[in-house]
Amino acid sequence: MNKITIQTPDDWHLHFRDGLMLKETVPATARCFKRAIVMPNLVPPVTNAKMAMEYSQRILEARPDGSDFEPLMTLYLTDKTTRQDIIDAKQAGVIAAKLYPAGATTNSDAAVKGVMQLYPVFEEMTAQDMLLLIHGEVTESHIDIFDREKVFIDQQMTRIVDDFPQLRIVFEHITTKDAADFVEAGPENLAATITPQHLMLNRNDLLVGGIRPHNYCLPVLKRQTHQAALRDVVARGHKRFFLGTDSAPHEKHLKENSCGCAGCYSAWSAIELYTQVFDELNALEHLEGFASHNGPDFYGLPRNEGSITLVKEDWQIPEQIKLPTGNDIVPFHAGQTVHWKLASS
Predict the structure, then answer these.
(1) How far apart are CA 333 and CA 269, in angstroms?
(2) Which of 155, 154, 157 is nearest to 167 (CA)?
């Protein structure tokens, strides 16, 4: 197959950042995605309805001329989140709330230190039909970073899913066979997003031949066996797994230093790279479900109208991109040849 047309896709997990960065990140996503679930881990984090709506407006103002891209806003859960915060957010149009264990990722220091104390909030989210999005890692320093997703499943995720059978839960950016098996065997109210980097790479791509800071993300890349498990579940077209890039921009100097930031900026090439992966797996018939159907179906939203077309044509991702800030950013897979390309409209 040298050409494929799919219903217009969405990105169910990404980071736009804020300020001048929006002039780069919003158009990069809007070029092919109609909607995106926008992560709330700004500084300060988006913890109430007013902040979410103000952030949404800044994103809308950064859209290219003529774009109808729609940001889907989320709330950042903290130990101080109340039932009323959930009610107000739902009324304002926020569709999900994000659970970050404290210290799990970029700008998560204000996040939740004890999941059990949020049970009243989860009850209200169930009543309001607001989705719970979970960064599924423990953060205790004595637990190996490569085991933190599995330990979270055992210690917390299983309990949350069991205790809230009516709450729709998305296990975000899963990285392990353990997580894939857990979701696949789980109830209908449990789903997961998968990133391009976790389908394409494993920890060898982070560490062999020298540290590759632009492949460093959280959750961190895992063993090849875990990568293979993720590729297997998408190749089989399971309906509760869907596209979430976790595109997470950081300026080059913040990645290439003695304590580099976590995140892969994949918006420039994500849909093309996903297509390449599905082609490698002889599973292009499942690309549309993964990219365009499974997400809105799980969220209870209409599927998009319109379509995009990708053609089998080589092109090269830039080595770096000049940001509106004046600094450079290195996109995911920089300098590499991609074998699928978004066709011009």
Answers:
(1) 8
(2) 157
Segments making up each domain of the chain, as ranges: 11-304
pTM value surpassing 0.90: yes
Q: What is the pLDDT of residues 131-161, one digit of tens each?
A: 999 999 998 999 999 999 999 999 999 999 9
Distance between CA atoms of 121 and 286, rounded to whole angstroms?
Answer: 36
Taking every pair of Cα atoms in the chain, the longest distance, rounded to a whole number of angstroms, is 52
Q: What is the side-by-side strand order in the sheet with 35-38? A: 11-14, 35-38, 70-76, 96-99, 131-134, 169-171, 190-194, 241-243
DSSP line for 128-181 = HT-EEEE------TTS-GGGHHHHHIIIIIHHHHHH-TTS-EEETT--SHHHHH
- Cis peptide bond N-terminal to 187, omega within 30: no
Q: Measured between alpha carbons, how far is 133 from 252 in angstroms, rounded to an integer?
A: 29
Q: Which among 11, 85, 178, 246 is annotated as catalytic?
A: 246
232 burial type by CB count under 10 A (0-12 exposed, 13-18 middle, 19+ buried): middle
Fold classified for 11-304: TIM Barrel (3.20.20)
Catalytic residue flag (residue 246): yes
